[in-house]
Amino acid sequence: MSTALLTDLTIFILALLVGFEVIGKVPATLHTPLMSATNAIHGIVLAGALLIGLTAHTVVGYVLAFVASLFASANVVGGYVVTGRMLKMFRRKAPQPELESLDGHKGRKGLAGKIGAGRAP
User: How far apart are CA 77 and CA 6, in angstroms?
Assistant: First the structure.
């Protein structure tokens, strides 16, 4: 194993450990802004994967570019799906329309309300 490869693997493993430690300590209220930032980072990763595809001249380079762009695309799409779900939790729910009974009255004032159905004795 060459010195450059060992250095690159060491940096990669240290980046994984630091990233795991930082993400693990993020409070839930900051999760959505953090996901938006990581979507931007994954967009840059996708651009890098496409750049690899442009500069590749061998089959191995093309395969690596395809796999890198596939993983980066999955991260971008998954990040937007998770961000959308998180933002949906904070939306105000639309008020439910009041139901109309068969005899034209609204709510419990209809026929069921007149005969006392649904009331505790």
Answer: 32
1-27 as b/e: b if 16+ CB within 10 A? eeeeeeeeeeeeeeeeeeeeeeeeeee
Q: Is the pTM of this model over 0.90?
A: no
Q: Enumerate the domain spans of the chain.
A: 34-88
37-75 pLDDT, tens digit each: 777 777 788 888 888 888 888 888 888 888 888 988 888
- Please state, rounded to an integer, the average pLDDT across all residues of the chain: 75
Quick one: which of 102, 39, 51 has its CA closest to 112?
102
Going by pLDDT thresholds of 50, 70 and 90, the confidence category of residue 81 is confident
Answer yes or no: are the C-beta atoms of 56 and 68 closer than 8 Å: no
Cβ contact 105:113 at 8 Å: yes
CB 108 within 8 A of CB 114: no
Neighbours of 103 (CB within 10 A): 10
CB 57 within 8 A of CB 73: no
